[in-house]
Amino acid sequence: MANSPMDQLNALVSNMFATGLLDEQFHQLKTLQDPSTPEFVSEVIALFCDDGIQITDELAKLLEQPTVDFDMVDSFVHQLKGSSASVGALKVKNTCIQFREFCKQKSRDGCIKTLDSARTEFYDVRSKFQTMLQLERQVQGFSPK
Hints:
mainly alpha; 77% helix
């Protein structure tokens, strides 16, 4: 017999913590949701997912330029680090910390390699967040998109 959506949701979130995708900030975010703002967490996560795609795409464009504007790259990395920290996306945040070091060193190769890692971590957590939100809708009695 298949696990209930609630069991699947709990297992997914537990796995996200166990694998280091999420940190305690995710629990802090969840505490901000109450009956007057039932969609708060899903809206914050959706913004993180949308912003992350735009930021990683912009970073790729900046790093392809003949002369890299490392200050601009660092600014976008800082933005991604902040948004990932706000949702508890630990691996993305930690990768951004490394990325910023390469920006300070003005290392294009280091930035490109770290962008690849940041994208991998971002798309991994994004995929799991999307599954989590789908399961939450099922638990709340809404049909998934």
